[in-house]
């Protein structure tokens, strides 16, 4: 599936809003639940997701090199309430004129890592498509991904480096695993990014 540059913004918006809907089903009692992200509770995962939303929004404004923009929320922040605000913030940042032509500084890829806007938004898209699944599995609820989102995610997932960075503390993705023969396309994406259908990450 070929994605035009402007199309990635709409795909990302849909993936993010699907995640907002899933997070909206969580309660404070769920925050201590383990997630498919090894060693992370739901509170940890949401804190990471908030930080990434904020960081990518800063990158869209040309401010991504500032490490403070990627700060993970402190434990006293209400991650359930803040998550929706952070999600809308990054969607708004991506929607601004000129974003696709702007260079995004993404320090998690290296201290001087810079990517074209459309490609950077593609990274954000695959991250939140998978993290929406992580939250759904944590809560024990269904997570249905539209076919066009899956097809758009497929080449992006294939392009994510499967190297030592996936072993670093706080890495969103773990080393790839083998998908079962009967796996769906989305399950194969999850496997490429270190997830298994039973929710082990």
From TrEMBL:
Coiled-coil blocks: none
Pfam families (UniProt xref): MDMPI_N
Residues in Mycothiol-dependent maleylpyruvate isomerase metal-binding domain copies: 18-136
InterPro entries named among the record's database cross-references: CHP03086, DinB/YfiT-like, Maleyloyr_isom, MDMPI_metal-binding
Top-rank lineage group of the source organism: Bacteria
Entry protein name: TIGR03086 family metal-binding protein
């Amino acid at each position: 599936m070929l994605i035009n540059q402007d199309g990635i913004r709409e795909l990302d918006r849909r993936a993010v809003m699907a995640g907002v809907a899933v997070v909206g089903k969580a309660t404070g009692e769920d925050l201590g639940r383990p997630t498919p992200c090894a060693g992370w509770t739901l509170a940890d995962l949401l804190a990471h997701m908030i930080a990434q939303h904020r960081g990518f929004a800063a990158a869209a404004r040309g401010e991504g090199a500032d490490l403070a923009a990627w700060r993970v929320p402190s434990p006293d922040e209400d991650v359930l309430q803040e998550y929706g605000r952070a999600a809308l913030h990054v969607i708004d940042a991506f929607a601004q004129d000129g974003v696709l032509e702007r260079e995004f500084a993404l320090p998690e890829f290296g201290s001087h890592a810079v990517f074209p806007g459309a490609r950077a938004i593609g990274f954000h898209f695959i991250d939140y498509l998978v993290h929406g699944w992580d939250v759904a599995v944590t809560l024990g609820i269904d997570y249905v991904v539209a076919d066009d989102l899956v097809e758009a995610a497929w080449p992006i997932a294939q392009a994510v480096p499967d190297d030592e960075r996936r072993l670093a503390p706080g890495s969103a993705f773990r080393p790839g695993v083998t998908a079962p023969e009967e796996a769906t396309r989305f399950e194969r994406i999850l496997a490429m990014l270190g997830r298994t259908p039973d929710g082990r990450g």
